[in-house]
Amino acid sequence: MDRIRVTDDKRLLHGGDYNPDQWLDYPDILEEDVKLMKKAHTNTFSIGIFAWAALEPEEGVYHFEWLDQVIERIASIDGRFILATPSGARPAWMSKNHPEVLRVDSLRRKQLHGARHNHCFSSPYYRRKTQEMNTLLAERYGDHPALLMWHISNEFGGECHCDLCQENFRAWLKNKYDNDLDKLNHAWWGPFWSHTITEWDQIESPSPIGESAVHGMNLDWRRFVSYQTIDFYKNEIVPLRERTPDIPITTNFMSDNPEFVPFTALDYSQFAKEVDVISWDAYPAWHNDQEDTPTLASRVAFLNDHFYNMKHQPFLLMESTPSLVNWHDVNKAKRPGMHFLSSMQMLAHGSDSVLYFQWRKSRGSSEKFHGAVVDHDRSSENRVFKEVAQLGQAMEALSDHVVGYQRKADVGILYDVESEWALKDAQGFGLKTKHYGETLQKHYQAFWERNIAVDILSKEDDLEHYKILLIPMLYMVSEETATKLQAYVKNGGTLVGTYITGLVDESDLTYLGGWYGPLKEMFGIEPTETDTFYPSDRNHVSYKGQSYEVRDYATLMNMAGAETLGSYEEDFYKGTSAVTRNEYHNGQTYYIGARLDDAFHQAFYGELIDALGLKAPLDLRHKRGVSVQAREAEGRQTIFIMNFTEEMQAIEIMEDVTDLQTHSPLSGTLDLAPYEVRVVEKVVS
Ligand code: GLA
Ligand code: GLA
Ligand code: GLA
After folding, report:
1. What band does 115 get if pLDDT is binned at 50, 70 and 90?
2. CA proximity to 351, closest of 267, 252, 465
3. Which residues does ligand 2 sit against, CB inside 6 Å?
4. What is an example of a Pfam family matching this protein (predicted)?
5. N or C: which end of the chain has fewer CB within 10 A?
């Protein structure tokens, strides 16, 4: 297995968002920055992210000298810069002189100038202007040897409902439905409440004061918003591709917060095709009072595996905090050691960087209390700075054992944002208990606890080489997806579906005549009803002699060839099937009809892990809360052994490995202190 290098730098990247434009009146601070950067063992800085007002203070008047200077300073310490295009925030003159750049919200209110991430994606002026700005940036800095990468705008998201966007939405629909309103009305189930459309200009984007009940349209609107956002991005990068074809391009993706699940405002599986490098901003709420640290760690792992697999290559952690954020309900400081551990976890799951928001804490405005490497004290002697420097040193030593190393997994979990859009919109089930992202994370956790690597996949990914594939709550299963899943199982795959899997097609129209044929055939069952629970309702499933708790959902089913592995213990469906297995051609399928607890997942997936011979990267014994993850290239595995508990952990290592800190062999008992990480190397064939 080769390395996949996503940048031309051989080092692990350490550094982050640097906003010198906030400090142009403080030359001593700018000089101090470069000294501190060295001291912090940092090497990479994202600059210009929101710098439009500093770059073009008046329309057509440009100032690049300050940026030239900043870049020379970074280069003087052998640093690299990730140059951002400034379109994430506009200067006030632009909103005033060209109000078409302002967004219109779903209530049709034109927004005032303010905040950020608030431009219209259709605005011809803004599209032209971003190209002009990006041309100037590419011409001035494109050949600079310290230029590492382009960072386009910032955290794309949001939507605009202005007249131009309405026109673009209609044009997109015409194209999608072959200019045929009958096709559109069928997909949107038009006759419902007399919503049949007879002329294209009757169509208006979804609105709380207008159309909100047509699910097919809501779904198409989400698809359009994604398309339009990606199209805006593609427009932005034209001058960069022309002038700097060898400089990779990224934009920073994110998670849905505060839930910390996959991002749902855009279809990242489509966006990923247009970027060279995936990067994302990770802000888990460590030490929160809702879940224990290992559970949160497994959710962080899930998201990393999601971003890794968007291009099946190493990604960059573009933003994280060395200490705390300012926008969680409670902004708790990372305990000593957690910064090191959580950063190592990102590397373990495929990141080739640990970058922060931000380098230096702002003096004013809304992020002045957001954690940063350099605090208001301007000191390198505080706890946070020292932990950052310590991490930087460790990253320098590890670079050659990590950069470009791949991840590999035999387990796949399918995440589909289109299905999530439709499921969220579905008026049915429990309106507050769908939790698609969290449900996937729960299933994932059973593998994480056993150190079994998992790939988070999209429906377009190749499935063949996975030994097991999970499609929990995959509400929308198109004919195409069903055919693909069938082929996977026919070839010997193991497929696990659950309650609410496979209820609608790609237009969010339900299947008629019982469960969708190919699914029924594969699973050998026919779900007949989904019972939805009140929060205090419980049922139980007896499975292989144990009883497991059910919350929220229980599917009732008829058997059509499958065998029953678990049955409901209570209520009017007591004794009927809850968990089933079916053999289908060379493969097998399992259906988990109820939302079962973690203990069930551990038992159920534990048996499958053993039966399918799935292996952890290292043969070792430990208690819950230790995670072992590996990256691999050139016949070597770099394995991270991470203690996510607040206790000492004694770990039995049954194989010979080399400790990458001491470079001496390691086997037998390894004692890990709370939050400690050990990185070891194993030679593989
Ligand atoms: C009301 C309406 C119906 C239908 C039902 C759904 O009774 O009159 O059209 O929407 O609610 O419960
Ligand atoms: C929050 C903030 C946003 C953004 C994300 C982090 O919602 O308000 O500005 O930073 O989280 O990805
Ligand atoms: C996001 C944004 C940053 C900053 C951080 C704060 O990730 O991209 O500009 O606002 O959130 O956490």
Report:
1. very high
2. 252
3. 155, 254, 257, 281, 283, 327
4. Glyco_hydro_42C
5. C
Peptide bond into 527 cis (omega under 30): no
What pLDDT score was predicted for residue 667? 85
CB 293 within 8 A of CB 646: yes
Q: How confident is the model at residue 682 (pLDDT cuts 50, 70, 90)?
A: very high
Q: Are 480 and 463 in contact (CB under 8 A)?
A: no
The Å distance, Cα 609 to ligand 3 centre, comes to 39
Where residue 193 falls (left for φ over 0; alpha for ψ -120 to 50; beta otherwise) is: left
Determine the pLDDT at residue 507: 97
Residues sharing a CB contact under 8 Å with residue 559, sequence separation 6 or more, in sequence order: 524, 525, 526, 577, 580
CB count within 10 Å of CB 652 equals 12
Report pLDDT for 685: 77
Tens-digit pLDDT profile for residues 13-33: 999 999 999 999 999 999 999
Angle at 226 between CA 211 and CA 510, to 5 degrees: 55
How many residues are there in the chain?
Answer: 685
Q: Which of 159, 236, 319, 676 is catalytic?
A: 319
User: Is 154 annotated to bind ligand?
Assistant: yes
The pLDDT > 70 percentage for the chain reads 100
Mark whether 526 is an active-site residue.
Answer: no
Q: Is 327 marked as a binding-site residue?
A: yes
Nearest to 507 by CA among 535, 534, 476: 476
Could you give the CA distance from residue 26 to residue 566 in angstroms, rounded to a whole number? 68
Q: How far is the CA of 248 from the centre of ligand 3 (A)?
A: 22
> pLDDT digit string (tens) for 35-64?
999 999 999 999 999 999 999 999 999 999
Please tell me the predicted confidence (pLDDT) of residue 420.
98
Q: Residue 468: how many CB atoms within 10 A of its CB? A: 24
Convert the pLDDT of each residue in 496-539 to its tens digit. 999 999 999 999 999 999 999 999 999 999 999 999 999 999 99
Q: Which atom of ligand 3 is nearest to the CA of 155?
A: 8
Return the pLDDT at 425.
Answer: 96
**Residue nearest to ligand 3 atom 4, measured at CA:** 357
Distance 298 CA to ligand 2 centre (A): 21
Q: Of these residues, 56, 155, 159, 632, which one is catalytic?
A: 155
What residues flank ligand 3, with Cβ below 6 Å? 154-155, 281, 283, 319, 325, 357, 367, 370
65 annotated active-site: no
What are the structural domains, with CATH classification, of the chain?
13-401 (3.20.20.80), 411-612 (3.40.50.880), 620-683 (2.60.40.1180)
- Is residue 287 packed enough to be buried (19+ CB in 10 Å), middle (13-18) or exposed (0-12)? middle
Q: Is 222 annotated as a binding residue?
A: no
- Say if CB 11 and CB 399 are below 8 A apart: yes
Residue with CA closest to ligand 2 atom 8:
327
pLDDT for the residue numbered 219: 98
